[in-house]
Amino acid sequence: MNVKYLVHLRINGSALCILPFLLILVFLGARAFSTIFGVGVFVFSDRGTDVGYVELVTRGVAYLAVIPVSEELYFRGLVYNSLQNYYRKRSAVILTSFYFAVGHVSNPPSLMLWFFLKGLVYVGFYEKYKTLAPGIALHALTNLPIAV
C-alpha cells in the first residue's frame, strides 16, 4: 500500500464542511470528559504569553502538520490496515484505537480513554471516506489548543 493511496485527497466536499462542527463537538466532548473524570484533556503552556515566536512556529508545525500526518499514516494507514489482515474489522478498530491510546501514555494515564475515543473517531473517518485526509485534518484541529 503506497502513501499516495493512503492520503488520497479527493474526498467528498461534505467532509470538509462538517469539520468545524466536529471541532466544536470535540471541544464539548473534551469539556465533558474533563468534568466527569476530573482531568484536563488539553495541556496548555504553563508559561502564559512568554512563548517565543520560534517556539510557537516550531510547535505549530509539529502539532498541526508533522504529528497528525505521521500518526495517521502509522496508526490508521499501516497498523489498522495490517490488523485487518489478521482480525475482523471490529477487532482491528478496537486494537488500533487501544494502541493509539497506549502510544500517548506519556500524557496522564487517565487520558487513555480520551485517546482511545479519538482513535475510534479517526478510524471511523478513514473507513467512511477511504482516505486519511479527513482524519489528518481533524487530528490537526484537535491538536490546535496544544500548539498555541
What is the tally of beta strands? 0
Radius of gyration from CA coordinates: 16 Å
Q: Which structural class matches the secondary elements?
A: mainly alpha
- Our estimate of the beta-strand percent is under 5%
Account of the protein in words:
The chain has 148 residues and is mainly α. The chain is 73% helix and 0% strand. The protein contains six helices and no strands. Helix 3 runs antiparallel to helix 4. The N and C termini lie far apart (35 Å). About 4% of the residues have low confidence.
State the main characteristics.
148 residues, mainly alpha, 6 helices
Quick overview:
The chain is an all-alpha fold.
Any chance you could write out the topology, listing elements then pairs?
Blueprint (H helix, E strand, L loop, with lengths): L2 H5 L5 H25 L15 H31 L5 H14 L9 H18 L3 H15 L1
Helix pairs in contact: 2-6, 3-4, 3-6, 4-5, 5-6
